[in-house]
TrEMBL record:
The lineage of its organism: Bacteria, Bacillati, Bacillota, Negativicutes, Selenomonadales. Pfam families: ABC_membrane, ABC_tran. It is found in: Cell membrane. SMART domains: AAA. One of its GO terms (cellular component) is plasma membrane. It is a multi-pass membrane protein. The chain crosses the membrane at residues 26-51, 63-84, 165-186, 251-273, 279-296. SUPFAM superfamilies: ABC transporter transmembrane region, P-loop containing nucleoside triphosphate hydrolases. InterPro entries: AAA+_ATPase, ABC1_TM_dom, ABC1_TM_sf, ABC_transporter-like_ATP-bd, ABC_transporter-like_CS, P-loop_NTPase, Type_1_exporter. This is ABC transporter ATP-binding protein. It comes from uncultured Sporomusa sp.
Length: 599
């Protein structure tokens, strides 16, 4: 595994370190680019020799053919080395970026969920997708091209200096101003880089949210312009790049003009030397046509340099994720007992706004234990602390008498099955969605699906268990998705089960099937349930009331009715709601009726 303690290393060296053995292909690509760049001087040398010979009337057909073949060989060699460099850089780049992507995903799997939750969804998407793609563009194309464009002007200058050092130095007169302008451009990009990151992360997040909420947008007849967050993100992105264009455009135009100013000095200086016999006609013509234009080869370097700034920024963004401390490897084995205890537990997602404070309760091994409370009271937070998605801010969470922080994290996750309210399905087949995280056979998957009351539905799909969720999943009902998640949990066969609003998506047709599936799932396990449906809660061995950022009461249904005002109130409300009947009342003559609730 690559060490993450590399914060002081230059981003480019860090990227090459991430590339592993693939960096040697990249080194060879750079070498090929250098050779290709050096070969650019050969045609200029040949043309100069032809001009000299022609001026002194010494040019023959054989010499012209020889120099022509030399130019052809140089051009062919230049393109050959460039092609070889690009081939090597592409192969090295794709393999290197595979390593970087895999490294990012593997690292995110072992860092605390809380650390990733603080990152903007759009920001993480930008790093994994867009920033990594920019690294591919840089490694596969820009790296050999930078060597090519840097080597060419240097080689031409050295050759010009060998012909006439004074005129060669005069060709460099625009260079200081061009370098200063290029520095100003780079500095301008660097100053706006953080703002670019924020705008792009906001745009990505708004885009994801907009696509996810498309049904709501259509239901309320909203358009792109009406969806303020998305429209605002687009406007912010456009405004930023408009500002950058206004700021950088004049500098870039001045840079291009300055590079072409060499002729203003070379032509009179060369003419003066030619008139006074200090330079031949061939030298004069060479410097007029070559010495005044070869600095234009530096222009692509500027364009690559602006992309290079974004590449360095992408490396920095990836490094920020890789710098998140992972959960420590190893630890104690998962205990044989599955009792769960909270001792004086306090927690805040952002470290400031307390969600839980001094929470204490004990769940016996094999017990069905439910949490009730208002939305946002902290019920789901408790289940996430049990699974160690987050670490507590104070106190202890114990399973089988062992602090979860001391348990091996992989063993902990292996022995806890969770069915969430919002069921997540990947774009793979239904089979792979149920088999997720296991190596179960098709027969074992089918057995789990039958227990989850979903087998018949899966068999009715166009390709059965091989039906791709990506193309068909949007037509799954909430209850069907829920039973697929229950089948997944049954197959995992973990001794500790967490049900977080697992029946929230149940409709009347699916509710009985889901209840039967849950009964099969809960058998012989310690079960932690978060639910608003009190008919489910009532069947649990004990219930905890979560209010005022803590657990205020624990007991059976009958005990809580006697000691908890909140539980007694919600039970009365639930009982009244169950007794409401709806009927039709005639409002006047004819067939017009209105629906009226009768308690």
């Amino acid at each position: 595994m690559i060490s993450m303690d590399q914060s002081r290393e230059h981003p480019l060296l860090l990227l090459l370190a991430w590339a592993g053995k693939e960096k040697y292909k990249l080194y060879l690509a750079i070498l090929c680019g250098l050779v290709s760049g050096l070969l650019v001087v050969v045609p200029y040398m040949a043309v100069y020799q032809v001009l000299e010979l022609a001026y002194y009337q010494q040019l023959t057909g054989e010499l012209l053919l020889m120099y022509g073949l030399t130019v052809a060989a140089a051009v062919a060699g230049r393109n050959l080395f460039l092609a070889l460099g690009v081939a090597l850089s592409h192969k090295g780049a794709y393999n290197a970026l595979y390593r970087v992507r895999a490294m990012l995903v593997d690292h995110m799997a072992v860092v605390p969920l809380g650390s990733l939750s603080r990152q903007h969804t759009g920001e993480i998407k930008k790093v994994i997708s867009e920033d990594i793609e920019k690294l591919e563009l840089f490694l596969a194309h820009h790296l050999p091209e930078m060597a090519l464009y840097a080597a060419g002007p240097v080689a031409i200058f050295l050759y010009l200096a060998s012909v006439n050092w004074l005129l060669a130095l005069i060709t460099l007169l625009p260079l200081p101003a061009a370098v200063w302008l290029q520095y100003r451009l780079f500095a301008g990009y660097r100053r706006r880089m953080h703002e670019m990151n924020q705008v792009m992360a906001g745009l990505n997040a708004a885009m994801i949210e907009y696509i996810s909420g498309m049904k709501l947008i259509k239901a309320y007849n909203l358009g792109v312009t009406s969806y303020r967050k998305y429209a605002g993100a687009i406007d912010a992105h456009h405004s930023l790049w408009q500002q950058i264009a206004y700021q950088m455009g004049p500098l870039f135009a001045t840079f291009v003009i300055v590079l072409q100013c060499a002729a203003a000095a070379v032509v009179p200086a060369g003419g003066f030397l030619f008139v006074h016999g200090q330079a031949g006609a061939g030298v004069f013509i060479l410097f007029v046509f070559v010495g005044s234009l070869y600095l234009l080869e530096l222009r692509p370097l500027l364009e690559l340099g602006s992309n290079f700034s974004q590449v360095l920024n992408g490396i920095h963004n990836a490094q920020k994720i890789l710098a998140i401390p992972p959960l420590p490897p190893g630890g104690e084995a998962f205990p044989d007992r599955q009792d769960v205890e909270f001792r004086q537990v306090s927690f805040a997602y952002d470290g400031r706004n307390t969600v839980l404070k001094n929470v204490n309760f004990y769940i016996r091994s094999g017990e069905k234990f439910a949490f009730v409370g208002r939305s946002g009271a902290g019920k789901s937070t408790i289940t996430q602390l049990i699974a160690r998605f987050y670490d507590v801010g104070g106190g202890e969470v114990l399973i089988g008498g062992c602090n979860v922080r001391k348990l091996d994290y992989e063993a902990l996750q292996k022995n806890i099955a969770i069915v969430f309210q919002q069921t997540f399905l990947t774009r793979q087949s239904v089979l792979e969605n149920i088999r997720m995280g296991t190596t179960a056979t098709l027969d074992e998957v089918k057995a789990a699906a039958k227990k989850a009351q979903i087998h018949d539905f899966i068999e009715s799909l166009p390709a059965g268990y091989e039906t791709k969720v990506g193309s068909y999943g949007s037509r799954f009902s909430g209850g069907e998705k829920q039973r697929i998640a229950i089948a997944r949990a049954i197959l995992k066969n973990a001794p500790l089960l967490v049900l977080d609003e697992a029946t929230a998506a149940a409709d009347p047709e699916n509710e009985q099937a889901i209840q039967a599936a849950l009964a099969e799932l809960c058998a012989g396990r310690t079960v932690v349930i978060v639910a608003h449906r009190l008919d489910i809660v009532k069947k649990c061995d004990r219930i905890a009331v979560v209010e005022n950022n803590t657990v205020t009461a624990v007991g059976t249904h009958e005990e809580l009715l006697a000691v908890s005002g909140y539980y007694r109130q919600i039970w009365e409300d639930y009982t009244k709601s169950r007794s409401i009947a709806y009927g039709l009342k005639k409002t006047g003559e004819g067939d017009c009726h209105e629906t009226q609730a009768v308690v």
